[in-house]
Design a protein that fits this description.
This protein has about 375 residues and is of the alpha/beta class. It is built from 18 helices and twelve strands. Strand 8, helix 9 and strand 9 form a beta-alpha-beta unit. Helix 1 packs across helix 10 and helix 2 packs parallel to helix 4. The longest helix has 21 residues. Bound molecules: flavin mononucleotide.
Length: about 375
Amino acid sequence: MIKLIERRKLSHINICLEENVQARNVSTGFEDVFLVHRALPEISIKEVDTSTEFFDHRFSAPILIESMTGGVREAAKINATLAEAAEIIGLPLGIGSQRAAIENSSLAYTYKIARDKAPNTFLIANLGGAQLTRGYGLTEAQKAVDMIDADALALHLNPLQEAVQPEGERNYGKALPRIKKITEALSVPIIIKETGAGIAAEEAKMIEDVGVKGIDVSGTGGTSWAAVECYRAKELKDRLREKLGESFWDWGIPTAVSVVETHLSTKLKVIASGGVRTGIDAAKAIALGADVAGLALPLLKPALEGTEKVIETLQTLIEELKIAMFLTGSKTIDDLKNSSVVIIGKTAEWLRARGFDIESYARRRRI
Ligand SMILES: Cc1cc2nc3c(=O)[nH]c(=O)nc-3n(C[C@H](O)[C@H](O)[C@H](O)COP(=O)(O)O)c2cc1C
């Protein structure tokens, strides 16, 4: 079983590096979201401050390096590089699911290295919701947090991946009461995150009601775990799972939709991830109500190339965010949150059909 987890981790990394694992016929919805350009921004770009506060920590920009890996030797290098970059730039970092190290403590070093390389960074521990239904609880959650001296714990929900993957856990019953128990006693705040299929308003409310403090929507439009599992099933010559991966490749709630749904229906801190590829996407997500925008896949290859590459990728993103702030006359992230946004097309149709008042976004600046 342990070797199986390690092999699977490695296979996930390799597939993500070599194949097209992103959504194919659906997108994040950010192409339907427009920040209203200001021909007279009335500020200097030098006044633009991208720094922000999140869970009582100050970051240089509202950008999260999303949970990716751990549990295999190759993952230690990825986590080390991401951590070095996070520490230098001053950004938060999530690590991958720690289940492998909970079940085999000799693998803990592949995660701990993140704390070694990033002593001052806001680090997010990670465990899977599917494991909760198998009996994981407060003990395992606290172990994961202590392993890396984490500042928060992300519990990831991945029913889509579990349903289509060859050895998936298809029982997602009674996860919520277990999440509640953990939130009541864990030493750090809990963030519930999806893994590429988004979170709807109803689930966001259920999550808020059990005492969770943050939500990472990880919506559709970026990495698709049905796609990753489709490639794995192909390798394993599992025809059924390959077909399931194909069929569900684009399943889920687009990221822009999920940000609006969770923001307008709860008071939770919202992280926008799933297909965030530019600083403009990040700016749009923040204007829609997210506190932070996160990305995973675009940092995987740079992480294997070295710290400089990760820094370069992130700094480009931050520069794009800065220019988008300048062009909307936003000196601060709070200003950006209050800037006008127009939502059109399918994204607008979806949100209206679900009863959300999207016109209020467009009416933020009075004429
Ligand atoms: C190689 C890889 C491994 C991942 N492993 C995890 C994981 O262990 N735990 C988790 O919560 N999310 C994991 N994710 C999901 C990401 O955190 C993120 O939610 C998702 O990929 C969407 O962002 P993206 O489109 O920018 O990749 C992983 C993503 C990638 C690309």
